[in-house]
Each structure stands twice: as C-alpha cells, then as structure tokens.
C-alpha cells in the first residue's frame, strides 16, 4: 500500500504564506494522494459574551470559522486551480495540538506537516509549546517545515542509535532508515545520510583511575559504533560515504553535520512517553532539535500507543 497519501497540513493562522502547505503540495505532485488544510481556532472572548444566547454564540463562532475557511481557500487557490486535491477544515478548539491529534487519529492521516519558525537564516528553528506537544504525542510522522527554501540538492540526515541494545531502538533505527529511503526515492531521489554520535571520554573515570587510557577507551567505543553503523548501512545497501560516526554530544554533532551537508531535513525517532529519543535517551533529542536550522521529520515506533502519550501531564500553555 502506498504511503503518505493522506496528508494533514496544520495551517498557521498568523501567516499569509504557508510553507507547510507548499511542501505538502510538492510531495503531492510527486507521490499523489490528498491534502487536508486544517486549522483549529479559538477566541475566549466569544465564550465570555454572557449577553448572548448559546445559539447566538454558536452563530458567532461559525462566522469566524467560515471567515477562516475562506481565508485558507484564498491561500490555496493557486494549488486548487492547478488540480491539487485539497480539503479545508476549520474547527473551534481551545487546544490546537489536541485538535490536530484527534483529526489525525479519526481520519488516519499518515503524515502531518507544520510550519516551524526562525528568527532569521542564521538562527535555529523555534518550536512552540504546540509544536512540542505534536512532536511528542502525534501517532503519525510529523514534518516541521522551516520558512526557508529547500536547499539546492538538499540531503536527508537520519540520526540513529548505535549504542542501545534495546530491541525497540534497533527496530526504530530500521524504521527511520527504511521510511527515509522510501520518501527520498518517491520524492526526488534525495541522498540519505546516517549519523551516530559516540560519547566523549568520561572525565571522572580519567581522574579516578590513574591507569585509565583515554585513547584506548575512545578507540574501543568508536570501533563499537563503526561496527554497528556498518551492520545498519549494509542492511539497507547504503554506501560507506553516506554514513558518519563522529565523537561528541549529539546536540552538537547532528546539527553540525546537518549544516556541513546542507541537509534539507533531519530525521529523528521518538519513543513516546519518555520524550523525544532519536539516537539517544532522555532529553538529548530535544536539545538536538533546539539547535537545528533545517526541516525536522519525526517518526514514532510501530508500537506507539496514543493513549499512553495522552496520559502525560504537561502544564505548558499552547501559544
């Protein structure tokens, strides 16, 4: 069955230009399918108008929905006129990420695209609380699109976990590479690179153990990572020149390599409840994301359970 035939674009209500919709149309023209331009809106003042009856408040809300629907239709007019299959849906909801996740789950959208903001070309992508909720909890892949043109011959950089012996992470590595190759082949034969970051020598060990040899330790760790990377790349027939095993913290190695390669997108994986975890555990992936200057594509493991993600308590307010 062909993938990515049912795309949802989270429309940015504050922008007249919609990079995520533009990227979705780019994908649609190459792989077909349909697009839904989706916008959750809410204005608390409409709920506080006590002088109006419930029917009158509902009518006012519907008026706002109709206005926004026409606004999106105007934004998408050129694409619709060109024959792109775009459905437009605006809903009244006070938590945008919940509305998006509900829509994805109810209508089996297999890819979500959303705009990510930047201060300027030299700054990292800025993620809002709504962005983080979607990245952590949305069951389908999420593509955060920066508001800059795709680089000439832009590459896909896939961050993989070469350290963990957890079978779940091994399966996630395979999914990241498999899905990245699939999209690359379907879209524009994009180059796919793999990256793994191995840790620096622990300073406390070097201090506490006089006979400890940091160079031997580094060589041993690098050797383990190189073997793991070779196994992974051979599984997917990827050339050695497209794999990178570098020393350092992932939040430095991955964004740095993405800049060096002029990558169009970095591909990460998540494991749900414990937060983003692409090539690593804990909050490291979130630190990586904070340093990116390119698009981000996030996948969940096959056994990701939406109910578990929704159980997480998060006091951050949606912007």
Summarize the structure.
The protein is built from 12 helices and 11 strands.
Tell me what portion of residues adopts beta-strand conformation. Answer: 15-25%
Q: What value does the Rg take, in angstroms?
A: 22 Å
Q: Note the quaternary state here.
A: single chain
Largest sheet: 11 strands, mixed
- Structural class, please? alpha/beta
Series of H and E elements = EHEHHHEHEEHEEHEHHEHEHEH
**Can you tell me the residue ranges where pLDDT is under 50 for at least 5 consecutive residues?**
273-282, 307-319
Number of helices: 12
Shape: elongated
Terminus-to-terminus distance: 37 Å
The average pLDDT score comes to 84
Q: What helical percentage do the residues reach? A: 40-55%
Would you count the extended β strands for me?
Answer: 11
Distinctive features:
12 helices; elongated; alpha/beta; eleven-stranded mixed β-sheet; 319 residues
How would you describe this structure to a colleague?
With 319 residues, the chain is an alpha/beta fold. The chain is 43% helix and 20% strand. It is built from twelve helices and eleven strands. Strands 1, 2, 3, 4, 5, 6, 7, 8, 9, 10 and 11 form an eleven-stranded mixed β-sheet that branches. The protein is elongated.
Note the topology.
Blueprint: E1 6-10, H1 19-31, E2 34-41, H2 44-47, H3 54-75, H4 77-81, E3 86-92, H5 96-107, E4 111-118, E5 125-126, H6 129-137, E6 142-146, E7 155-159, H7 167-187, E8 192-198, H8 203-208, H9 214-235, E9 243-247, H10 250-261, E10 263-269, H11 284-290, E11 295-299, H12 306-310
Helix pairs in contact: 5-6, 10-11
Main location: cytoplasm
Domain UspA: 4-146, 179-300
Pfam family, one: Usp
């Amino acid at each position: 069955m062909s993938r990515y035939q049912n795309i949802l674009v989270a429309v940015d209500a504050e922008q007249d230009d919609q990079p995520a919709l533009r990227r979705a149309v780019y994908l649609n023209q190459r792989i077909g399918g349909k697009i839904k331009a989706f916008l959750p809106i809410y204005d608390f003042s409409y709920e506080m108008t006590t002088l109006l009856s419930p029917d009158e408040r509902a009518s006012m809300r519907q008026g706002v929905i109709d206005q926004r629907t026409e606004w999106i239709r105007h934004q998408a007019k050129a694409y619709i006129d060109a024959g792109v299959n775009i459905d437009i849906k605006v809903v009244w909801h006070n938590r945008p990420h919940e509305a998006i996740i509900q829509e994805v789950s109810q209508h089996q959208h297999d890819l979500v695209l959303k705009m990510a903001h930047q201060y300027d070309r030299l700054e990292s992508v800025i993620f809002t609380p709504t962005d983080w909720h979607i990245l952590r909890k949305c069951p389908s892949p999420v593509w955060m699109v920066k508001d800059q043109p795709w680089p000439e011959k832009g590459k896909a950089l896939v961050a993989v976990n070469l350290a963990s012996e957890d079978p779940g992470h091994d399966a996630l590595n395979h999914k990241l590479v498999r899905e990245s190759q699939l999209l690359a082949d379907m879209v524009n034969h994009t180059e796919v690179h793999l990256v793994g970051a191995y840790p620096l020598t622990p300073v406390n060990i070097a201090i506490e153990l006089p006979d400890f040899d940091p160079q031997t330790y580094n060589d041993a760790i690098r050797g383990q990572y190189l073997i793991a990377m070779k196994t992974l790349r051979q599984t997917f027939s990827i050339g050695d020149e497209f794999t990178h095993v570098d020393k350092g913290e992932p939040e430095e190695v991955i964004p740095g390599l993405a800049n060096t390669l002029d990558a169009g997108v970095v591909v990460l994986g998540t494991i749900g409840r414990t937060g983003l975890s692409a090539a690593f555990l804990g909050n490291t992936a979130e630190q990586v994301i904070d340093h990116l200057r390119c698009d981000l594509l996030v996948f969940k493991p096959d056994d990701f359970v939406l109910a578990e993600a929704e159980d997480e308590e998060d006091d951050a307010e949606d912007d």
